Amino acid sequence: MNALARLGAAIAHEQDALRAAHPVPDHVRQTLVELQLDVVGRDLPARRAVSLRRVAFGSVGTALLAVAAAWLVWLRPAPPSPLTLRVGAGAQHAGAGAWLEAPKSEALPLRFSDGTHIDMAPRTRVRVVELGNYGAHLSLESGLAHVKVSRLPHAAWRVSAGPFAVRITGTRFDLRWNPEQDDFELDLTEGHVEVSGCVLGSGFKMSAGQTVHASCRRGHFDVVDAGARARVAGTPSTAGPLAVVAVPEPVVASTEAAPARAHNAGAHAGSSERALSWRALAAKGQFREAFAAANIAGWDRLCASVSADDLGLLADSARYAGDVSKQAQVLGSLRKRFARRQSAALAAFALGRLEFDDHGAYRKAAGWFLTYLKEQPHGALAREARGRLMEATLRAGDVSAARVLAERYLHDYPTGPHAKLAERIAQPATP
Amino acid sequence: MPPRSTPRPGAAPQVAKRQVVALPLRDSDIALVAALKAGRADARSALFERYASDVQRVLYRVLGPDAEVVDLVQDVFVAALTSIGQLRDPSALRSWLTGIAVYKARKCILRRRRWRFIHLFAPGELPEREALLPSAEVSEALRSTYAVLEKMPADERVAFALRFIDGMELTAVAQARGVSLATIKRHLSKAQQTFRTLAAAQPALAPWLDNALDNALDDAVADASSDAASDGLTQEEQAP
C-alpha cells in the first residue's frame, strides 16, 4: 500500500466514523417518499382508452384544485421572502456567496431587509453564506463586526468565525476573529447567544454582559464579566458602531486564578462555584459539566498545576465532553510532568487509543502503544496494548509486521480479546 | 373487454395486493427497479434504505464533510427517481446511483468554482464554504486533505477521491465518471502529482506522505516484536 492509499484509507476510516455519527436524516427519505415526481422515461403502462366520464371528473377535479390553489394564494399569509442585503453607503445589493471586505480606513455597513445591522470594521472580511427567510448565515473570515440582529419572531441568524459558530435570535454584540492568531472574541451587549465549536464544544450559552474569548489552537476559552469591565472602562461598547472598549486586564472567572485577580471574584460568584466544583463534578461522573467548569477555571493552568490523578479526571472530562484535542493536551501534560511514572505510561496508552479511535491515525497509535509497552512491559494494560498495537499495525498497512505481532500475541494470550483477530492475521493469505 | 390487469370483484383485489407485497424488494435490485418503475409507494423508501449510505459515502469521499452533502443526497435520489426509466440494466442499480452521485458532486465543485469568480471581492486564500462539522470532530489530516483537493482541478479531484479515499478499482472509477479507462489513468496520474505538490504546504500531511516515517514504524514494530520476545512477556506474568 503506498502513502497516498494509506492516507486515503485513514481519511475514509475517519469519514465513516463521521458518517455513522451523522447519518442521512430521515426527513430526506420522507421527502422522497412524498415527492410528486414527473417521472421522465418511466415505464408507464400503455395508455388506455379514457372515457368521457373520467375526463369530466378529471376536469372538475382540476377546476376544484385550481380554485383551492387560488384560495391558498390569496388568503393564506405569504411566507416571507428571503432577506435582502445592501452593502455600504451606495446600498449595493449582495446575495448569498458574496465576499465583502471593508476598506482599509473606514467601516462597511451591511443593512438587511429585516432591520438587522452589521458594521464591519476596516479591513474586516465577511462572506455571506446564506440569506434565508428568517435570518442569514454569515462567515466572519477575519476582523471585527458589530452585530445588531432585529428581534423578530422565528429570527434565526448564524455567524461563523473559523471553527466557532454563534447562533442568534435577536441581540447585539461585537465579534472579533483573527484567523492567523486563532483568536475568537465575542462581546455580548444585549440578549442571548449560543456559541459553539472547538473548545466551546456543542454549545455554550452566553448572557448579556459576558465576553467569551477562545482559541482553538491554544485549546482554551475564558468568560469575562463585561459588567465589571464596563465599570473599569466607564462605558460599554455602544459609543460608536465599531467601538470595543479597551480592557486593561482580562478578568478570569475563577477563584483558582492568580491571587492578584482575587478582587474580581465577587463579581463572578456563580462562575467561581463552577470553577471550584469541576473536580467534584468529574468525580460524580458529570464530565460535561466538569469540562465546562474546568474551562472557566482555566484549562491551561489546571494542566500545568494539578496532580496526576486530577489530570486523569481532566482527561476523562474532555473525552466525555467530546473534546479530543483537549484530552490529548491533558495527556501530553501528564506525560511531560510525571515522566517515568505509571500514570505517564497510562497516558501513552490513552493517547494511542485516542489516535486509533478518534483520528484513525494508526501509525501514531501504534507508536503510543509501543511506548506504553516499553515503559510498562508487565503493566495491567500490556495485553490490551499488544492487541491494539497489532491491530493498529495492520490497519496502517504493515501486514507482515502485524503478522509477527499476531503470532507473538497468540503465543502469549491464546484466549485474549484480540486472539481471533490475531488468528486471522497470522493465517497465511490464501491465493 | 376490461384490461387484463383489472381485478375481478370480490376477493381478487386482495389476492393481487398480497402478490405485490410479496415481491422480494429487500434482496433484489431487479425487483426494486421494477417496483420503482411501477410507481410503488414502498419502493422509494426501500431504495433510500438500501443506498442512502452508499450515496452519502461517495459524496463524502469527493466533497469531504460538507454542509451540502445532505441536500446532494436528496438531489441524487430525486434524479434517480425521475430517470429510473433510463436504467437499462436493473442489476447495475448501485453503480448507476454511484455515477449520479459522482456527477452531482462534480457539478457542485464546478458550480462553486464558477461562483468564486463573481464574488464582490476576491477571496484570496480564504475558505470557500462552511464545514458540516465542528473542527474538533475532524482531524487535521482530513481537513488538510480536502484543503488540497479543493485546489485541484475537478476531474483530478474526483478521480483521486474515488481511487485513493474510496479505494475504488480503476474500472469502477472510470464507470462512475462515465469516461474511458485511459482517461481515468491520465487524470489519476496528474492528480497524484498535483496532490503531492500541494500537500507539501500542509504540515498535517507530512507524516503521511513521508516515506521515512513508514520505515521508522516498520523498525518500531520489529522492535516491539523483539522486545516482547526478549522481555519474555507471558500470559502468566501478565495476570493482574
Can you describe what's shown?
The complex is a heterodimer of chains A (431) and B (240). Helix content of chain A is 44%, strand content 19%. In chain A, helix 12 (382-395) runs antiparallel to helix 13 (399-412). Chain A folds into 3 domains: 85-251, Jelly Rolls (Sandwich); 259-323; 339-431, Alpha Horseshoe (Serine Threonine Protein Phosphatase 5, Tetratricopeptide repeat). Chain A has a 15-stranded mixed beta sheet that branches. Chain A is α+β, with helices and mostly antiparallel strands and 431 residues long. With 240 residues, chain B is an all-alpha fold. Chain B has 12 helices and no strands. The chains are: A alpha+beta (431), B mainly alpha (240). At the A-B interface, helix 1, helix 2, strand 3, strand 6 and strand 7 of A face helix 3, helix 4, helix 6, helix 7 and helix 9 of B.
List the main descriptive attributes of the protein structure presented here:
heterodimer; A: 431 residues; alpha+beta; Jelly Rolls; Serine Threonine Protein Phosphatase 5, Tetratricopeptide repeat; 3 domains; 15-stranded mixed β-sheet; 14 helices; 15 strands; 44% helix; 19% strand; globular; B: 240 residues; mainly alpha; Rna Polymerase Sigma Factor, Chain: A; Arc Repressor Mutant, subunit A; 2 domains; 12 helices; 0% strand; elongated; disordered N terminus; disordered C terminus
